[in-house]
Design goal:
The protein has three helices and no strands. By secondary structure, it is mainly α. The chain has one domain.
Length: 111
């Protein structure tokens, strides 16, 4: 048996598998699907099936919407607190201005 020549079967180079394009969903669809999932009381699986998205994607959208709602609620609370503090500060500033005017009037020489 001659071992110097070995015939290997021809191996074809594998063609690269094309990468799948990510599907992009518009904001209106995301908002509608998140509203359905959170308000209708339906299971997330069913809502995702009807919308044609994966359940994991729907869960991510819901979490992002909840985080944004918490952020907006926090900022609304801060704005309300800011308005309250400005109102509290307005009275001492008005009293200070009145006292400055009174000091100017009373420090003038009589006569």
């Amino acid at each position: 048996m001659d071992t110097t020549k070995v015939n290997f079967p021809a191996v074809k180079a594998e063609e690269p598998v094309p990468k799948r394009q990510r599907t992009k969903y518009d904001a209106a669809l995301r908002t509608e699907v998140v509203c359905r999932a959170s308000q209708d009381g339906q299971a997330a699986t069913r809502v995702a099936q009807v919308a044609g998205v994966s359940e994991a994607l729907l869960v991510r959208w819901v979490r992002a919407a909840q985080a944004q709602a918490v952020h907006l609620a926090g900022s609304e609370m801060l704005e309300q607190k800011n308005r309250h503090l400005r109102a509290q500060l307005a009275r001492p500033e008005m009293e200070r201005d009145t006292l400055k005017e009174a000091l100017t009037i009373f420090s003038q020489p009589i006569g």
